[in-house]
Specification:
The chain is mostly helical. The chain has one domain (3-84). It has 5 helices and no strands. It has helices at residues 3-18, 22-33, 35-38, 42-53, 70-84. Helix 1 (3-18) packs parallel to helix 4 and helix 4 (42-53) runs antiparallel to helix 5. The longest helix has 16 residues, at 3-18. The chain is globular, with a radius of gyration of 13 Å. The protein starts with a helix and ends in a 9-residue tail after the last helix.
């Protein structure tokens, strides 16, 4: 399994089990679908996959404050998208 397949797998799992929002999942899926644009950023994609795996809607709250929340994940996505020269997908609302 390559890093893009791993990102797809952890994205699907985070959506099903941890409430990963659709707008973040769409941006993660775009990375998987547009591998060529992101192929020079595999280290960042590996880090992103690890963050998605640690995603928790309520992360960074409470006593210990562990996990990755929307803000952290969105920042990581924005940095990778900028490096690849792509604009973030606008949030529909």
């Amino acid at each position: 399994m390559d890093i893009f397949d791993q990102l797809r797998r952890v994205t699907e799992q985070a959506q099903a089990e941890n409430g990963l929002p659709d707008f973040l999942a769409a941006r993660l899926c775009r990375i998987v679908q547009q591998r060529e644009a992101f192929s020079g950023h595999t280290a960042e994609i590996a880090d992103l996959a690890q963050q998605v795996e640690q995603y928790d809607t309520y992360a960074q709250t409470g006593y210990i404050g562990m996990g990755v929340n929307n803000v952290i994940l969105e920042g990581a996505l924005r940095r990778i998208e900028e490096k690849a020269g792509l604009m973030p997908i606008p949030v529909q609302g």
